[in-house]
Amino acid sequence: MTSTIGPDGPHVFSFAPNGDAFLLDGKPFQIRSGELHPARIPVEYWRHRIQMTKAMGMNTIALYVMWNYHETSEGVFDFQTDNRDIEAFIRLCQAENMWVLFRPGPYVCAEWDLGGIPSYLLKHADIRLRTDFASDPRYMRAVERYIDEFVPRVRPLMAENGGPILMIQIENEFGSFDSNSVYLEEIRQLWIRGGIHGPFYTEDGLVQLRQNRSTVMGGAIALSNGNAAQIEAVRNAFPFVPAMAGEVYPGWLTHWGDRAFQGTSVDLSGTLDEFMRKELSFNLYVIHGGTSFGFYAGANVDADTGEYQPDITSYDYAAPISEQGVATASYMKYRSIMARYLSTPLPDVPAPVATISVMDGDSVRRLMPRRYASLWDNLPAALPLADTVHPQPFEMYGQAFGFVLYRKKLERYAGGALDIGDVHDYATVCIADQYAGAVSRANVPRHLALPLRVVQRERLALPGASSTRQAGAMLEILVEGMGRVNYGHAMIDRKGLIDPVVYKNVSGASERLKNWEVVLLPMDSAFIENLRPVCSNPNKPGIFFVATLSIDAVGDVYLDMTEWIKGVVWVNGRNLGRYWNIGPQMRLYCPGPWLKEGDNTVLIFDLHQTEAKPVSLASTLS
């Protein structure tokens, strides 16, 4: 079998002159990699997930870096706090005797908001993403700043300098987006300018690679959904370039509204056996997915129908290591396949992390929240009217995530209809403090849409006027920005009200509404921490609820939101992500390190619910 040498000092990672092998210190080396995303794993669990990967038979960790998780506002970088310390993660890999494939983008896809690209770039109405300096210098100057920030952190971690990084990937699946060798070379040169000369590689599907020749000078090729036959095909087409299966999918991603979690029937046994038998290099994408906490889950647009498909919060992916870090049946099956081909015994599978008991005697333990605060009693000041003649997307106001409230007083209101156009992505509408309905960009099943009066791509009927509303009724449109599209040519995906709002009164006259009040609601930690416990109108949707989770010992747990409609959950100020009753995800993962012994605060914001419902504790995703 190939060398088992570990990243214990300076090494030379290179390619065989004829391209038929990767070489470590001049000897053939098989990359056996599992993908982990530090941004999706609590920092306290990093070592556990690395050890789980190693115990399945891997010798390498592949990792995406999500640019927008680190440049949180323009020119402001964070590589230190919480799970953003990428250098520490890579050092942990090295401490566990694991090599690293480094995938920093600038675009990564990854079912992550805007594929990892910072949304502040979308404030430019004519911005072009994933293109060269000549085509859009604003984009490439931002890329340059990002890579320049990274270079001094990465350079000491390269194998030649005693670190564990074998290769750096240039961009990601660019052949599925465009054909622009200048752009890829400009990115490569940014690393070289910083003193990192490779090795480099690219990642693409076989068809796209053939069509757009999206490789870089002197770089290896990794194949999306690759297998042994495709590696052979690439070797024939690019005879002097080493190739590997860069993304081998053990499961698949899931969108809100899918009938079930995707990828659960995948079996890679034959594929893995062939890789091992032929000593071909590969990377399982993902060996452990984790969770898209907060507002970071991305989205797709169906190429045939144009349907917007936001991703669920969980990134379990039906991966061998589950969202909460448990070795699944497929993990044990794949581990046994790997072990048959390796000359040394695999380490024991790490013990699972602690969990909270979800039972109270013979019954499932349930939390009973209470109404805590109304959004409407906690609104920040509106933006100056001069800035809001026409409603603009979030990005034009400098907001990346969360919600925005658009308000407009309708004089002589007497009912009618509202055409919001292409809302991005979910809006609840109130008129004179009365809920009128909602507009969803994503499809909502009819049986769930009707009770809530949720419409999609059609006019929303407004209730008739009463004497209390006729003299200037306030129209309020609260828009939730869900995941930005992370793949394909629909990535310029701004959030909020995209089109003009048209009000049609009962007599049929239409008016394009102008001069809005706009209230920014990023729902960040500062906003949550400063909520005032006031709820002057408990019947108006947009309410925060609070519950107390009391525990004697810290451990992982899931919160079952089956009895709730649509919203966000925070535990001790940590954003667990979105829930939505269209499923298939009904439970949100809460990592043990985010809890403490004693009382823990569970805060729920629901866009529709005005009465509290129970929240059951659960031990698994489903």
TrEMBL record:
Residue span(s) of domain Glycoside hydrolase 35 catalytic: 22-339
Active-site residues (renumbered): E173, E247
PROSITE patterns: GLYCOSYL_HYDROL_F35
Key words of the record: Glycosidase, Hydrolase
GO biological process terms, semicolon-separated: carbohydrate metabolic process
Reactions this protein catalyses: Hydrolysis of terminal non-reducing beta-D-galactose residues in beta-D-galactosides
Record flagged with keyword Signal: no
Enzyme Commission number(s) from the entry: 3.2.1.23
Domain (Beta-galactosidase galactose-binding): residue spans on this chain: 544-600
Enzyme class: hydrolase
Domain Beta-galactosidase 1-like first all-beta as annotated: residue spans: 391-519
Family note: Belongs to the glycosyl hydrolase 35 family.
Name the UniProt record assigns to this protein: Beta-galactosidase
Organism: Paraburkholderia azotifigens
